[in-house]
Amino acid sequence: MVENRPILDFLTHAVLIIGIAFIAFPLYLAFVASTHEQTAFTSGVIPVLPGNQLIENYTIMLGTGISTSGAPPLSLMLRNSLIMALSIAFGKIIISILSAYAIVYFRFPFRMAAFWIIFITLMLPVEVRIIPTFKVVADLGMLNSYAGLSIPLIASATATFLFRQFFLTVPEELMEAARVDGAGPLRFFRDILLPLSRTNIAALFVILFIYGWNQYVWPLLITTKVEYYTVVMGIKRMAAVSDAEPQWHLVMAAVVLAALPPVLVVVFMQRLFIKGLTETEK
Amino acid sequence: MSTKRNTFPNFWLPYVLLTPQLAITLVFFIWPASQAVWQSFLREDAFGFATKLIWFENYSQIFSDPNYLNSAKVSVVFAVSVTALSMGISLMLAAAVDRLIRASNFYTSLLVWPYAIAPAIAGVLWWFLFNPTIGILPYALKMAGIDWNHIVNSNQAMVLVVIAASWKQISYNFLFFLAGLQSIPKSMMEAAAIDGAGPLKRFWTISLPLLSPTTFFLIVINIVYSMFDTFPVIHATTEGGPAQSTNILVYKVFVDGFIGLNLGSSAAQSVVLMALVIALTVIQFRYVERRVHY
Amino acid sequence: MAAIGLSNVSKSYPGGTMAVDGVSLLVADGEFIVLVGPSGCGKSTLLRMVAGLETVTGGEIRIGDRLVNKVEPADRDIAMVFQNYALYPHMSVRQNMAYGLKNRGTDKTEIARRVTEASGILQISEYLDRKPRQLSGGQRQRVAMGRAIVRDPKAFLFDEPLSNLDAKLRVEMRGEIRLLQRRLGTTAIYVTHDQLEAMTLADRLVVLNKGKIEQIGTPIEVYGKPQSVFVASFIGSPAMNLINASVAGNELRLGEMTLPLGERVIPQGPVTLGFRAEDAKPAISGANLRLKAAYVEELGSGKLLHSFVDGQRVVVWLAPDTQAQEIFTFSIDPSKMHFFDHSSGKRLT
Predict the structure, then answer these.
(1) Nearest to C231, CA basis, from C248, C252, C247, C215
(2) Nearest by CB to C51, which of A180, A183, A191?
(3) pLDDT for A67
(4) How far is A130 from chain B (nearest CA, A)?
(5) Model ipTM?
(6) Hey, is the C-beta of A97 within 8 angstroms of any chain B C-beta?
(7) How many other C-beta atoms can be found within 10 angstroms of the C-beta atom of residue B38?
């Protein structure tokens, strides 16, 4: 449409620029803070431009961490986060795609019951069953382990529903042709359904990686040994030292490093990410 | 429930395929949830020796506890504020991006990435910005005559967590609002323009009403978000204080259970929250999912 | 190659609906049988039962001499061509055609040989490495047929394969299908709702209505001697004129008109008369059918006169150079008249 509205155009751009600034501002300042030394914060004037301590600060955090905070070096925590995020993402995708396949392509007694059992998980976020779940994990000896960090989180329903939704849109004839072509259920799954599911799997992987990486409550509860701390839950320990002012330059370096991987994933895989978001909310 | 017209005839295979998910669900979701319900009917003494079945006493106790009621109030204020603030800002941004003919992808990229930030990190970031000693915002506020100290001032603590929680959620709401706006047929806007409606009028009288399924959907999602997923924000910043002013219900469950070791009360609170989630999920699936299409 | 026998085959759904009701049919080895009928008549269901994609709730299906009711589609040695082609979108044409053979453990050289042969016959050799989305509708249809041919099955099953093509392509492809089947000599069961397709392709037609067989016969038989009002109105275009009339003595009363019956002996009383648009010949003397033109359709090769008799619609062919008139007069040769029972719709004599 050809409409000449210069004021509105100006406002539109102004809103966007302010919006983007508001969105970016906290992380920008954190980054700036991470490139200065401790003294920059005690002088009373807050730095708004990057300093020159970038390499030093990040090396300290990655190498030795903040000893007074009870948190291990960042490199260890980053590694734990990575393992947890990848386990959760892969684990969830695998068990969900299998369940969705069973529910859509087979008829069997208790099929609906299985569907509802899976559905229930949507209504049981970890926050409403913190203590009993902790007890189960402790009883199974899974505290302070990668298994404990990931397995309890991989059974929720959104991924299953996404795959189920997608499978329902696959044309009937494809499966029938495959059957006539001599493919049993496993071959059909491997040769036809999986390749067709590729973009959905990729989109879901992006979302689940972010979800796994950003886990807070669960790692907080079940890791009592420092070597299993993940980076997102570890941040708090560094920032909340009660006896002294936190070493902000180092804490912010940790914050930037903790936030970076998921942000990079979103930035580089934006299309897949958006697809994953909109598909899982249907 | 819709299903395929043709299915494979195997008998055992589907059960095998379902076993991993069902097993994990039963062990880590359903069993603990039922344990929470069971525990809410018990009172355990301080040393864990005697456990007494007290039925609904825990429930009546929490509903008459001023701290619990305060938490409920705090949660409502928190949820409403986060939802309103986050959705308001994101709607404006989505409307702005929708107006652009070019570069919408560019702006979208710049607005979407906060989704990847963990709520805990969002909390720490804003806590840093609002830090009474070295934060940049109190510095600026002081020049406007406002003394900021969220460690002491309850209202300011609430403002802090509301902003931190909303900031993170803006990108999510933005994406859905943008998708909703972009799905409105161009021809409808053109017809309205011919009918004499300017851009603002078109937004209020056409875009907004057509956006209502998306809006309703996002309200439910945002409420669930602010009731449950914001635990890390509180835990990483105010820890429920000062003086219980940011002690939202989900945080109280954690404090009473893990720290206060009042398992029965904490379990009862969990069950109340469970009921809330169930209600919200039912609403989401029955009334909302029907009308949201992309 | 094999004969296919259906004895009293039925398909019922929980709730009582009978999609197919007691169908018996013997398809000879190498025959091209067409199942034709309106939507919902059960033809697709019947085909899918032969394929093994639907379970049989009553009766027996035999391929060759083998009872196949409980046999998996893959083991029935049949090949199917679907309406939507059902090509695997992520595989190339070559891989699509090879898939069925691969699953059966055929060795690579044999697969390659068969794919080359089939794609040669169907003229799709140049597309072997393309993906389905890069092909047009007609090309995809050929690939779907190639997939079937490559298997060298006992029978081809076609489920409305041409419905998604435009009219011109349909005519072309139907000829190709016929030639192909004749060349390969494989038994074929073909489902369509298009009576023209049925007539041009079939060795024999099976007309189905509401799950039951109305008539089985060659195209000429079904066209020339429809056994019921249903078949009469379904086969042939324009549809056969069916009019309520009554027989009195040696004459047929149609509204206010009377037509001679010649040597035909028809039971007295009310009857349904059927005659084809081309069987009413313009006549001057001895003319008994007077039709007032409601409107005339110009087809180029002739004209179609639309009229009403006794409130009932009638359509008659006119020669291309016929002048416009108010009233047209025709006579109908009694031997070309069809008579159906007034209430049951079944053919009399």
Answers:
(1) C215
(2) A180
(3) 64
(4) 7
(5) 0.86
(6) no
(7) 13
**CA-CA distance, C290 to C335, in Å (whole number)?**
19
Q: Exposed, middle or buried: residue A51 (CB in 10 Å: 0-12, 13-18, 19+)?
A: middle
User: Best-predicted range by mean pLDDT among A116-125, B217-226, C201-210?
Assistant: C201-210
As given in the structure block, the two tokens for residue C129 are: 């490495």
Backbone angles phi, psi at B51, to 5 degrees: -120, 125
Q: What is the pLDDT of residues A221-236, one digit of tens each?
A: 888 888 888 888 888 8
Which helix H or strand E contains C201, and what residues bound it? helix C195-201
Which CA distances in Å does C282 have to A42, A152, C285, C286, C327?
Answer: 113, 87, 10, 10, 11
What is the token pair recorded at C197? 């397709």
Q: Which amino acid is at C218?
A: T
- Phi, psi dihedral angles at B208 (to 5 degrees): -60, -50
SS3 call for A173: helix
Q: CB of C80 within 8 Å of any CB in chain A? A: yes
The closest CB to that of A179, out of C73, C87, C104, belongs to: C73
- C78: which strand partners? C155
How many other C-beta atoms lie within 10 A of the C-beta of residue C156?
24
Rounded distance, CA B86 to CA B80, Å?
10
HSE value, Cβ hemisphere, 13 Å, CA-based, for B105: 5
Q: Which of B3, B109, B253 sits opposite A267 (nearest CB)?
A: B109
A194-198, B27-31, B140-144, C124-128: segment of lowest average pLDDT? B140-144
Residue found under tokens 């439910």: B220
Chains in contact with A via at least 3 Cβ–Cβ pairs below 8 Å:
B, C
The DSSP string of chain B is ----SS-B--SHHHHHHHHHHHHHHIIIIIHHHHHHHHHTTEEE-TTSS-EEE-TTHHHHHHHH-HHHHHHHHHHHHHHHHHHHHHHHHHHHHHHHHHH-SS-HHHHHHHHHGGGGS-HHHHHHHHHHHT-TTT-HHHHHHHHTT----TTT-HHHHHHHHHHHHHHHHHHHHHHHHHHHHHTS-HHHHHHHHHTT--HHHHIIIIIHHHTHHHHHHHHHHHHHIIIIITHHHHHHTTTT-STTTT--HHHHHHIIIIIS--HHHHHHHHHHHHHHHHHHHHHIIIIIGGG---
| Mutate which: A107, A180, A188, vs C, most C CBs within 10 A | A180
Mean pLDDT of A45-69: 73
Q: State the DSSP H helix or E strand holding residue C151, giving kind and residue range, or none if neither.
A: none
Number of residues that this document lists for chain B:
294
62-91 in A: which are within 8 Å (CB) of B? none
What does the pLDDT look like over A58-98, one tens digit per residue?
877 777 766 666 677 888 889 999 999 999 999 999 999 99
Instruction: Encode burial over B135-169: b for 16+ CB neighbours within 10 A, e otherwise.
Output: bbbbbeeeeeeeebebeebbebbbbbbbbbbbbbb
Q: CA B144, B150, B153 angle in degrees (round to 5)?
A: 90
Q: Mapped to the 3 state alphabet, what secondary structure does B204-217 carry?
A: HHHHHHHCHHHHHH
Cα–Cα dist C84/B15, whole Å: 32
Point out which residues pair with B122 in neighbouring strands.
Answer: none
Residues of B (198-237) whose Cβ lies below 8 Å from A: 198-200, 217, 221, 228-229, 231-232, 235-236
A86 close to A68: Cβ distance less than 8 angstroms = no
| pLDDT winner (highest mean) among B25-29, B185-189, C252-256 | B25-29
User: CA-based Rg of chain B, rounded to a whole angstrom?
Assistant: 24
Alpha-carbon distance A249 to A247, whole Å? 6
Residue B178 to residues A257, B168, B219, C234, Cα–Cα distance (Å): 30, 17, 15, 53
